[in-house]
Amino acid sequence: MPVNPVNPLSKNGRRRASGASAAGELPAHAATVVVGGGLAGLELATALAENGARDVLLLESGPGDDLVHIHRSLPQDRATEAVFAPENDPWFHRPWESDSAHYTGISGLRRRLGGRSLYWHGVVLPLEDWALSAPWWPSDVVADLTKSWRGGPSLYESVGDDLRKWSSPAPGSPERAGAFGGHDFRPLPRACRYLSDGRWEAYTPLARWPRADEVPRPPVGVRVRCDTEVLGVHVRDGAARGVLVRDSGGARALVTADAVVLSAGTVESTRLAVQALSGHGALPEPRLGGLADHIVQGFVVRLPARATAAGRVPGPGSYYVPADPVSRSYLRLDVRETEPGELLLDVRVTGEQLPNVDSAVECVPATELPWRTRIRAALLPQDHELVAAQREMLRGFWRRLAEELELPFTPMEFTAYGDPSRDNTQVLPSRTRSQAVGVPETWTSLLGTEDHEGGSLPLGQVLTSRQEFTDLPGLYAAGPVVFPRLGAANPSLTTLALSRRLAAILAGAE
Ligand SMILES: Cc1cc2nc3c(=O)[nH]c(=O)nc-3n(C[C@H](O)[C@H](O)[C@H](O)COP(=O)(O)OP(=O)(O)OC[C@H]3O[C@@H](n4cnc5c(N)ncnc54)[C@H](O)[C@@H]3O)c2cc1C
After folding, report:
1. In sequence order, what are the residues at sequence separation of 6 or more whose Cβ sits closer than 8 angstroms to the Cβ of residue 398?
2. Fewest 10 Å CB contacts: which of 12, 20, 180, 316?
3. Residue nearest to ligand 1 atom 24, measured at CA
4. CA of 83, closest atom in ligand 1
């Protein structure tokens, strides 16, 4: 099994395979330019090829040297540290500033071909009916996702089926869970493959690419150019006509295109959109609102061996309770064996931050591209209510759990929402190992650090339901950035489904 295969797609000479680059020279024109080779862009390019498109150019600002998921290339503790201590990750990059503690710390891009598809945990949940209901999501998109797409199964059904076929069950993974702490838990669906040495990887669209010497190569019809940053969208005569790029040596070039798709992660795609729309006179100010992430809080508790021995705790694995329209938060339970006979419970609630105009990506116009980008994070009163309700949910769960397991009850304390000293790095193995047994340690994620950020180029508002900019024909977007509202579910099942839908649209298949 190859680890860290060298991929000759990269122009960057550091770890490039000998021989010519598979990408060749930068073409002057492509039918479709895909900006960003992460989860959304790779799924789009791959599905475009599967739909018969033959002139797709994918531009990725990072290298293409290492195409392996971090939980496959690194042992568990080191992979977790790479995520939570990003100074250990050579690919971490945050091209924005923030006006608060939100969207700082571990919030950022993982700048390499594969993007965050080589980091994610593979949790695949459909968006809840209450989140997809009118007036937020366009009804034709909802029908394609949930009812039927192109006369066949819905996108959620077909993408979910493909991911299930690709995945393998975790060793000893639960078929079902059952009641615990007053809740009826289900096994958490994950698109992951587990290896015999205990490591695992989550789905990446690179898994669908043909392999040569065990290295994924672009499918026929797709050219990939790594180490190539898109600085701006080229607009002429009221339409997007291409992109301006800069290579790692600083050389700039124009690539013309019939269609350009922004899939550079939510903030970068929004920065590119703000520049293009401002230059085109379609934005009163150089900013776009609606930026949202999930509101996530939780606690970790080490169980004493006697509680574990009583057999009332579900076996190691991941479980969840779906979000209802009132709580707009789902409850997740991860049970991990830390020492033989000793269990750690990692309990979290993931809830929806509602979109609002004050939560925004703002740019500073300049003659040079790229424009400086700043995140302004703002919560609505309903979001603060959700924070308080989540804390009650967690307290109630801990109370029930302590009763069931006959543990002494320790009250659960939280600090102010947005406190960087109690963020999700509390769940790092190095911290939980030294935690007192039976005492819950609470934490609250900063916005942006869940990596579920989206919503600033919403379908049905900034974009048509065919994912094209209303004010800029020829320009499209993909990824969680297009979600009109997030719901509570993790975004990637919907991201993959919408990338496949957009590929069919661009390939003229629908
Ligand atoms: C540790 C972790 C765990 C996660 N777990 C889950 C989970 O279990 N379930 C779930 O649903 N989601 C999960 N996510 C979130 C999920 O990974 C993201 O929502 C998803 O990757 C976003 O896809 P994207 O294509 O929009 O962005 P990315 O995957 O970040 O891809 C963007 C790509 O664009 C490139 N790029 C950026 N700017 C430019 C530019 N100017 N020019 C050219 N290229 C550019 C970047 O280098 C990157 O490769 C997790 C994320 C992390 C980090």
Report:
1. 181, 299, 301, 347, 412, 440
2. 20
3. 265
4. 1
Among 10, 39, 78, 483, the mutation site with the greatest number of ligand 1 atoms within 8 A of its Cβ is: 39
Three-state SS at 309: helix
Pocket of ligand 1 contains residue 98 by CB under 6 Å:
no
CATH number given to 13-172+202-290+357-378+451-506: 3.50.50.60
Report which protein residue has its CA nearest ligand 1's atom 4: 120
**Both structure tokens of 388:** 């308080």
Which stretch of 138-142, 204-208, 308-312 has the lowest confidence by average pLDDT?
308-312
Token pair of 365 as six digits: 């116009």
Cα separation values, 284 from 92, 278, 302, Å: 33, 8, 53
Q: How far is CA 208 from CA 9, 56, 204, 218, 497, in A?
A: 17, 16, 8, 9, 15
**Helix, strand, coil shares, percent, the chain, to 5:** 25, 25, 45
Q: Whose CA is nearest to atom 50 of ligand 1?
A: 120
Which contiguous run of DSSP H or E holds residue 494? helix 492-506
93 CB-side CA count, 13 A: 16
Query: Which stretches does DSSP call E strand in 424-486?
Result: 441-444, 468-469, 472-477
> Which atom of ligand 1 sits closest to the CA of residue 122?
8
Ligand 1 neighbour 104 (Cβ under 6 A):
no
C-beta of 63 in contact with ligand 1 (< 6 A): no
| Minimum CA distance residue for ligand 1 atom 45 | 36
Question: Ligand 1 in contact with 9 (CB < 6 A)?
Answer: no
Q: Where are the alpha helices (DSSP H) in 148-290?
A: 155-166, 266-279
Report, as an integer, the average pLDDT of 417-444.
82
Closest C-alpha residue for ligand 1 atom 39? 264
Phi and psi of 332, rounded to 5°? -125, 140
The domain ranges of the chain are 13-172+202-290+357-378+451-506, 178-190+293-356+379-444
Q: How far apart are CA 344 and CA 300, in angstroms?
A: 7
Q: 275: Cβ below 6 Å to ligand 1?
A: no
Torsion, CA 43, CA 372, CA 254, CA 501, rounded to 10:
20
Q: Let me know: does 308 contact 315? Beta carbons within 8 Å.
A: no
Joined together, the tokens standing for residue 94 give 């945050």
Instruction: Give the atom of ligand 1 at the shortest distance from the alpha carbon of 231.
Output: 41
Q: What is the pLDDT of residues 249-296, one digit of tens each?
A: 999 999 999 999 999 999 999 999 999 999 889 999 999 999 999 999
pLDDT band at 24 (very low <50, low <70, confident <90, very high): low
